[in-house]
Specification:
This protein is mainly alpha-helical and 350 residues long. The chain is 75% helix and 0% strand. Helix 8 runs parallel beside helix 13, helix 9 packs antiparallel against helix 16 and helix 12 crosses helix 16.
Length: 350
């Protein structure tokens, strides 16, 4: 009897899980569909604001964008969480171990997109990659792609600019990670890695085969939504608040004058300003949207965003534990140059 009952219960659980996911997706779609008219009614009906006024424009921007971005972010984080349940940083270092440059750079950059990464994990990942025989340039391709091309950045860009901009951002971000890592690898700068790094032996990979079923994967993805959205929502609200103020009160021609396509110097200045700053995509993308709406060139503000995210000050300071300043300077220079080229590319084609 048990041998018959267990499969039946398992199939029932799968059906119930599918029903719950379908219901959740339907509710998400209904809320998203009616979001614009409801927030508009609140801002311009209930609150009685004039949409043509500075205050009305700013409040309408804020009330609509906050729930819209949180809804999109929750959906994408959930889907990426399902994907990440099949993969871990440990598996990444094993997959990259022994890979030669070129192929390794491409694989490392692509793995960086789907592998959880934060500044605090930069040193352990670096040590693990070096110990596994991953070339220095391949390691940098991973370390560049992981923070730059994340689900937060992509979903915010999609929500504010559409898939064309989000896809172009992903493609150019990957190109920067691959080419920058390849260039650093070609320069043969291993002697600028801290001496103690090559003496460390972290041992063989110790991870268990993934035993998760789909119920566990969904639970993992839901927890990822709680963790990530729970951490970044204050940045989203703050960033959209700044964006709303810019949207409502900054004159149309002001940003065009200092960050427009005609100001050729604005791209390198944006990168230089962004390197020492620290924020994340949740806080910076709403500001990017507001600047673009006020006349700033998209390439210029995205170059600023890339510099803030990919060359963050905390990660640079943490990497100092394993890299000498000369290599950090090369890293900043190579990646910064790539970001500037992407900024000019965006300005030229969009």
């Amino acid at each position: 009897m048990k041998t018959v009952q267990a499969p039946v219960e398992w199939q029932f659980d799968k059906v119930m899980l599918a029903v719950k996911l379908a219901a959740a997706g339907f509710i998400w779609a209904i809320v998203y569909w009616f979001l614009e008219p409801v927030t508009g009614a609140i801002a311009y009906g209930l609150l009685g604001l004039d949409p043509a006024s500075h205050l009305g424009s700013a409040v309408g921007f804020f009330l609509y964008d906050v729930p819209k971005i949180l809804l999109l972010l929750s959906l994408i984080v959930f889907l990426v969480g399902i994907l990440r349940s099949f993969f871990t940083p440990e598996r990444a270092r094993v997959a990259l171990g022994g890979k030669r440059e070129g192929v390794g750079n491409v694989l490392a950059a692509m793995l960086g997109i789907v592998t959880p990464f934060c500044s605090c994990s930069a040193v352990p990942l670096f040590l693990g990659f070096v110990e596994s025989g991953v070339p220095l340039g391949v390691t940098f391709s991973f370390l560049i792609a992981a923070p730059m091309i994340n689900e937060v950045a992509v979903v915010l860009l999609f929500g504010m600019f559409g898939w064309s901009v989000a896809a172009l951002y992903m493609a150019t971000g990957l190109a920067i990670a691959i080419l920058a890592g390849w260039v650093i690898g070609r320069l043969r700068l291993e002697h600028w890695v801290a001496d103690w790094v090559y003496e460390v032996r972290m041992g063989e990979a110790q991870f268990m085969e993934d035993k998760r079923d789909w119920s566990n994967r969904v639970e993992y993805a839901v927890q990822a939504v709680r963790d990530i959205v729970g951490k970044v929502w204050p940045y989203i609200v703050a960033g959209i608040a700044v964006g709303a103020a810019i949207h409502g009160y900054v004159p149309e021609d002001f940003m065009a004058g200092i960050m427009g396509k005609n100001a050729w110097w604005s791209v390198p200045v944006a990168v230089l300003v962004g390197i020492p700053m620290y924020s994340n995509a949740a806080g910076i993308v709403p500001v990017v949207q507001a600047l673009v709406e006020k006349g700033a060139a998209l390439g210029t503000v995205l170059a600023f965003m890339m510099a803030v995210i990919a060359l963050s000050l905390p990660e640079t300071i943490i990497l100092k534990r394993v890299l000498k300043w000369q290599l950090i300077a090369v890293f900043l220079g190579v990646v910064g140059t790539g970001i500037m080229l992407v900024g000019y590319l965006f300005n030229a084609v969009l």
